[in-house]
Specification:
Pfam families: PBP_like_2. It comes from Chryseobacterium profundimaris. Keywords: Signal. The protein is an alpha/beta fold. The protein folds into two domains: about 120 residues, D-Maltodextrin-Binding Protein, domain 2; about 130 residues, Periplasmic binding protein-like II (D-Maltodextrin-Binding Protein, domain 2), CATH 3.40.190.10. About 40% of the residues lie in helices and about 20% in strands. The protein has eleven helices and 13 strands. Strands 1, 2, 3, 4, 6, 7, 8, 9, 12 and 13 form a ten-stranded mixed β-sheet that branches. A three-stranded mixed β-sheet has the order 5-10-11. The longest helix is centred in the N-terminal third of the chain and has 24 residues. It starts with a helix and ends in an 11-residue tail after the last strand.
Length: about 290
């Protein structure tokens, strides 16, 4: 009799254990660990959003890992990452591959307007650059423009704007956007091409140091010169404005989708603005007078 009671008790305990284990393993946006892949060019804003999320949800841990944009996208397709930050438009073939391999509808979650900017040393006499000069320079054996590497978001985006493939363009390479800025004075005849978020934080000491070393060139387009400022990013007037967005392969509401939702809320958009970028989702500020 006692053995029968023990068996029954063990049976119910095993059911209870399995039930608790399933509950613990259920999707959760407010606890657990996740890695997000981002190109170096927009690492700063990604880290700021990750820190904001972890402050709001202390039981979460988000690791921000830098990886070239195209390689990060491949890792997402191959289920080696749950979320990636992108800037360039995907081709119809890439969208098809994403939907087939991830088994989700392609729905990019846009959260910020960034820019690719053209910079020269602070003492350079050059004051602006035209679209024609950029197009011609990217075809010249002089390799006038310095990028942070092949497969980088900056190169991909400029190539897309010029309706070219990156392999068809001619350019120089200095690995790392910060390295480009710091070493640009050694090459006075060259023009650095970096992401705005590299030094966009208004009150950050490192950003201030980098800004003090270079001059950002306005881009001449259709008879007008445009700076990469808030107004021109918001109106998409600056020719090399790019919209940053998240892609995930997470089908449930776990940390990846929780992080995406947070980044697109008012709090997340305030973090984007503090990074010196243009928030993609604008919130009206209403004041009631009594």
């Amino acid at each position: 009799m006692r053995s029968s009671v023990k068996i029954v008790m063990l049976f119910f305990l095993s059911i209870l254990y399995v039930g608790c284990k399933k509950k613990d393993e259920s999707p959760s946006y407010n606890k657990g660990e996740m890695t997000i892949l981002t190109d170096e060019s927009f690492k700063s804003v990604t880290e700021a959003l990750a820190e904001g999320y972890m402050i709001n949800y202390p039981e979460t841990k988000i690791n921000v890992v830098t990886k070239k944009e195209d390689l990060g996208f491949l890792d997402l397709l191959n289920d080696k990452a749950r979320i990636v930050v992108m800037s360039r438009d995907l081709s119809s073939e890439e969208i098809k591959t994403y939907e087939e391999q991830v088994d989700l509808k392609f729905l990019p979650s846009k959260f910020a307007a960034d820019a690719v900017v053209f910079v020269v040393p602070k003492d350079s006499p050059k004051e602006s650059i035209s679209m024609a000069e950029i197009e011609q320079g990217m075809q010249s054996n002089d390799k006038k423009f310095i990028f942070d590497g092949a497969n980088s978001s900056n190169l991909n985006f400029v190539a897309q704007k010029l309706k070219k493939q990156p392999k068809d363009l001619k350019f120089s390479i200095i690995p790392g956007s910060k390295n480009i800025i710091e070493e640009l004075s050694k090459y006075p005849d060259k023009i650095g091409v970096v992401g705005l978020n590299t030094f966009s934080r208004p009150y950050d000491q490192e950003s201030e140091k980098l800004r003090s070393m270079i001059k950002i060139l306005p881009v001449e387009y259709k008879g007008n010169k445009y700076n990469a400022d808030f107004e021109n990013l918001r109106k998409m007037n600056y020719p090399f404005t790019r919209v940053l967005y998240f892609l995930t392969n997470e089908g449930n509401f776990n940390i990846a989708n929780g992080f995406i939702r947070f980044s697109c809320t008012q709090l997340g958009q305030m973090i984007v603005q503090k990074e010196g970028l243009q928030p993609y989702n604008l919130y009206r500020r209403e004041v009631q007078m009594r």
